[in-house]
Amino acid sequence: MPELPEVEGLARFLDERATSHVVRGVEVGAISALKTFSPAPDALVGGTVLGVRRHGKWLDLQVRTTDGSTLHLVWHLARAGWLRWSDVLSERPVRPGRSPIALRVRLDDGSGFDLTEAGTRKRLAVHVVHDPDDVHAIATLGVEPLSEQFTPERLGALLAARNQQVKGLLRDQSTIAGIGNAYSDEILLVARTSPFAPTARFDADRAAALHEAIRAVLTEAVAAAQGRPAAELKDAKRRGMRVHGRTGQPCPGWDGTPCGDVVHEVSFADSSLQYCPTCQTGGRPLADRRMSRLLR
């Protein structure tokens, strides 16, 4: 699933290419992806793109319409969605149900982009709204972790608000916006913290260390994504992972010095997490989420 760094990379990529262009057409390829019906996607046609922003893992294409109002095309790529940019789009119309294309946006110079989704579990969500906050998932987003509002004290308060596993807190979009399964694994390695550590056990020093790890990991990943074409962002993300998706491989160490251990995995029904026992759990493997009694 694309997370904050990749979505930020997509926002910057699309902003550079689409801003000031006129929307020539919007074609819906998957009705299931469209979560709103009024305004209709056709209301964007003839409007001028004002810019592209990110809200957590959501992308927001802002358009000044022909009647002078502002509409937002906002979407969430979910687990299997992606944005595919073309300098020259095919003139062939999108045929619903015949391709992975969920939505196509055509611009006045012949360029444009497709929102695509692979697999059978369709979760990509597209909204056309007057205000991004009209989308409940955006209106309820938590603090942006790279914003000035995200301080060690703010994180400490979030950790203390209720006792839960720290990985769950990092992934909770209503608490901290933009972090998912992959970057939470990376952050917890750098913070030398078990994914199952109870948040109630975090004192001010430990909260500050976690805050520093969040900022460092995300800042590094955003910098790695900057300037890359949309087609390269997925591979760049994979190459930048220290532990996520690297089960059985040597751990590079929380500080970049190999620790001599290998990356371990805990599996769930439809996902998994990766961690290093030496760096994060005092050398003790986590056998199972429900059975582990490690106090981190």
UniProtKB/TrEMBL annotation:
Keywords: DNA damage, DNA repair, DNA-binding, Glycosidase, Hydrolase, Lyase, Metal-binding, Multifunctional enzyme, Zinc, Zinc-finger. It catalyses: Hydrolysis of DNA containing ring-opened 7-methylguanine residues, releasing 2,6-diamino-4-hydroxy-5-(N-methyl)formamidopyrimidine. InterPro entries: FPG_cat (IPR012319), FPG_N (IPR035937), H2TH_FPG (IPR015886), Ribosomal_uS13-like_H2TH (IPR010979), Znf_DNA_glyclase/AP_lyase (IPR000214). Residues 2-124 form the Formamidopyrimidine-DNA glycosylase catalytic domain. One of its GO terms (biological process) is base-excision repair. Belongs to the FPG family. This is Formamidopyrimidine-DNA glycosylase. It comes from Cellulomonas soli. The lineage of its organism: Bacteria, Bacillati, Actinomycetota, Actinomycetes, Micrococcales.
